[in-house]
Write a structure and sequence with these properties.
Radius of gyration: 17 Å
Number of domains: 1
Order of helices and strands: HEEHEHEHEHEHEH
Helix content: 25-40%
Strand content: 5-15%
CATH class: Alpha Beta
Shape: globular
Oligomer: single chain
Length: about 220
């Protein structure tokens, strides 16, 4: 029998501990878990409000994830080792990073679930921002399905400005997979990338509305 390696064990420990903490102290709710494929490559496209999203998005499912994260997080030795072992893939937000895109596509083709934030930055208010076209490019080049994901409450739990933990309810909704392969036959280039990105963001917005209709007390002004 082959024992789990140290990288997998580190990820598993973080997963178990964070899942327990969010369920016990933050009333963590999960919906649509059945929409996440049990195997094979796919992109988890989620809104982004705080560093807590990295933990929250993985707590609702049982597959290991890889995360696209800003390159600055990999600059210091300890941080680089930690993020790499937890499945981080660095991305330069200043422009298209060919090496990073290649690594992301290779991870997807190898069967990984890769988390990408279409907005490209955190929202301090919990409101959804406009998407960047980079995720559309990755979807078009990889041909992988997209799982739209909405995270609620992380902007309250770990605000971007204060970076202090606050006890506040949180939840994650995973939507049905989106397939954009047919769209490639009607559009091309940046126009195609922007259309894919916008459709993904629109779907995340629909998941947000559905969540807050179910729990009106959570609605963000």
């Amino acid at each position: 029998m082959t024992l789990p390696g140290p990288v997998f064990m580190l990820y598993a420990v973080f997963h178990v501990l964070s899942s327990a903490v969010f369920r016990l102290f933050f009333g963590f709710k999960v919906y649509g878990r059945e929409n996440v494929p049990k195997k094979g490559g796919a992109i988890l496209a989620s809104n982004h409000c705080s560093y807590a999203d990295i933990l929250l998005i993985g707590c609702g499912i049982y597959r290991r994830l890889k995360y696209v994260a800003k390159a600055e997080l990999f600059q210091k030795t300890f941080s680089r080792i930690l993020w790499t072992r937890l499945g981080g893939i660095p991305l330069n937000r200043g422009g298209v990073n060919r090496d990073s895109f290649k690594k992301i596509i290779e991870a997807l083709q190898a069967g990984s679930l890769v988390v990408i934030y279409p907005e490209g930055t955190r929202s301090e208010t919990g409101k959804l921002g406009p998407p960047k076209w980079g995720i559309g490019m990755l979807v078009a080049l990889s041909g992988m399905p997209v799982i739209p994901t909405y995270i609620y409450g992380s902007h309250k739990v770990l605000p971007a400005r204060t970076k202090r933990i606050h006890f506040h309810p949180v939840g994650v909704t995973y939507g049905e997979p989106m397939d954009f392969t047919s769209l490639s036959g009607t559009l091309a280039g940046k126009e195609l990338y922007q259309e894919i990105s916008q459709r993904i963001m629109d779907r995340i917005g629909e998941l947000k509305e559905a969540y807050h209709r179910k729990f009106p007390e959570t609605r963000i002004p």
